[in-house]
Amino acid sequence: MSQDILLRGIGITRRWGGLVAVDQVSIALTRGEVHAVIGTNGAGKSTLINILSGETPPSAGQVELLGQDVTRWSQPRRARAGLGRSYQRNTIYPGFTVFENCRLAAQARHQQPWAWWQSAQACEASQAAAHSSAQRAGLGDALDRVAGALSHGQKRQLEIAMCLATAPEVLLLDEPLAGMGAEETERMLALLAELKASHAMLLVEHDMDAVFRIADLITVMVNGTVIATGTPDVVRNHAEVQIAYLGQQ
Amino acid sequence: MTDRSRIVFVALCGLALAAYPLAAGAFGLDLVTKIMVYAIFALSLELLVGATGLVCFGHAAFFGIGAYAALLLSPSSDAASLLWLLPASVGAAALFALMMGALSLRTQGVYFIMVTLAFAQMAYYVVHDTPLGGGSDGIYLSAKPVLVIAGLRLIDLDQALPIYFFTLACLVAVFGFLALLLRSRFGRALAGIKANEQRMRATGFSTYPYKLAAFVISGGIAGLAGFLFGVKDGYVNPELMSWHLSGAVLIMIILGGLGHLRGALIGAFAFALLQEFFKSELIFGGFAKHWHLGLGLTIIASVALLPHGLVGLPARWRARRQGRKAAL
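Structure tokens for the assembled complex are given below, as produced in the milestone run.
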């Protein structure tokens, strides 16, 4: 096994009653690479992310994080071990400020719940992580704004910032570009390209232009199974993919 | 409200309560002691409902267990020492909270409300229908607990004034403890769980132990309130565990304003004083026996008109004043 494979799913299957949402999917995420998963609605992309992050247990198969078998680990435990994820719809804390959103996320690494007499602000490590992650995601000017009042694009940036605040090694990003304008998309793509160097990244995205620009590897899913995996060029010219997904041109 | 005006408000409340016995008669002293006990009880529920977003509808169980434990554990002949009786009563309530929380926290939303209610009803029927706690007649305390150190009777809860000040000290301690707790990392995590539990799990917080810890702390504080109540009256009966009381304390914190410790304080006072007001035969004459009606209508009206509770009143006035200024 290569040292740089940070997250690996092996033969992952998820059945909901008679429906097989994800069928024998194997996937590997390497540091320095964006691995995009594309497919039509209902292809099983979100279920796959949920299984990798630990939100949904798989019916069969195995998940390895940093070389360890984490299949039976809870989601919080995987997160503490370095697995960050963002959600398709915004899951920020809308009533808190941008800074507090990031600070609370960073606190996950320094929980110490027994220190009841000590202010949460006293934890310098989480303060620093919150500052730098907000800065990195481009929200350095908006620290004191209430998160619920941000624009849609800024909320997506905040999602990423909260991910980064937990200092993850692996990022699972579920449609980070959804609903973004052209300018916001460019900014987000630049951020993802920058993060790529130090992280392994799984990207589920519907914006095909963006996917083909930024992805190093693309996995195409149809009805829960993988029909192709390869570089953007390989996938673009893959006969089955053209029929199933990209439309014949 | 700014931080400073909040502290000033709470400090003034504390001073007023400390000075109150100078002016009060026996009835007033007993009434305010009772209200302070309710305030501690309301604060404990605020930790669950307002701070963590867990609506517990069985909080009277902890209150009742604290009260029953105080009376059942007291020796029949001699006065018990506060040093062990108080921790034992609080511990009994906390232990029950640990069991109840461990099971009920596996459910969510309306199911959680129902499961907590079911547990409290179980506790209610245990004391109501078994000889353990004297059945529906309740039990009496033979001698109230004391604190004796090196032969000195430092605290003797047999008289109204020591009970008053001991209750006030407990109220101040609980308020201070919760205020610190809510601004600590633990408290911020509870706030995160209330706002978005899924995200908390995704960032690495195992939310179940956090919620269970909050549940046990809350149950223990409710047990403290029950202890004080039982010792104050020297008498307990199953009504202390009835769902009416669980409902009343929920109404207190809603009336006062969820999400603020002050809200629990204000709500307990408002609720109890409204109750006294509508029960007063001096004002309402024969109608006073229908006090539930007046109290209920007032609460419905105030909840409808004040969605943020009594705590939100100053902000409303300010907004209205600014609105009027802007209109000019």
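The domain at 3-327 of chain B is CATH 1.10.3470 (ABC transporter involved in vitamin B12 uptake, BtuC). Chain B has one domain: 3-327. Further analysis is deferred to the final report.
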